[in-house]
Amino acid sequence: MFVLLSLLAIVQWVAASSCPQLDLDFSKIADGTSPFDIGFTDVWCGQNAIIQGGKMDLSLNKKCGPDISTNLNVQSGLFEVDLETSWGSGVVTAITLFSAGTGEDKRDEVDMEFIGTDVTTVQTTYFVEGVHVPGATQSVDFQVASNTSTSRHIYGMEYTPDSISWYIDGRKVNTVLKKDGVPFPTKPVDLNLSLWDATEFSEWAGKVIQILQIHPDIYETSS
Ligand SMILES: *[C@@H]1O[C@H](CO)[C@@H](O)[C@H](O)[C@H]1NC(C)=O
Ligand SMILES: *[C@@H]1O[C@H](CO)[C@@H](O)[C@H](O)[C@H]1NC(C)=O
Fold it and tell me: Does the beta carbon of 149 lie inside 6 Å of ligand 2?
């Protein structure tokens, strides 16, 4: 097998805040609808994000893995994604809250990430202006009750001016509170959904052996 095909099935996604609000239930959206006609922005490899069978599938293949984003600019809100993760060495499934800007901007970020070699763990982290908060635990891991690549769960992140909370199936697993004198994310964010090959980045998620064999095609995913 030289192409690693992966599935990310998002059945329902709610970005709830006083304003704006978006609630996508893919079971009510026609097969073949473009994600980019219903509120997503194609950041990278949008051709690999397909709505079919009541869900949206993201796939990583030898060309690239998708990164799609909302365009809501949410200052405070709850983001929930119902998903089945990908699996396999090197593959990362990520749900990210990311502030606007370009490469040089110091962006705020809150993450839930799943590495394909450890499909029962979600890794959570956050960044303020592009860096981890000095002294804070960099990544906090939580166990999910079952193999996340074969079972759907609802993963949530709540972003408010004075707290960030992470949820698994509606259960709050962690909260970080804003404290005086400690950097805290404050910028309006959007939700990104992505599936990427971390092989070049580090060995954190393992190596995509199959894809390395057809190097350099895969590196079209690198930005
Ligand atoms: C998220 O999407 C934005 C566009 O809205 C893009 O600029 C950014 O690079 C993406 N970030 C991640 C971590 O996927
Ligand atoms: C999780 O499911 C995937 C896909 O069926 C399988 O390849 C993997 O071995 C499973 N891992 C565990 C720890 O159950």
Answer: yes
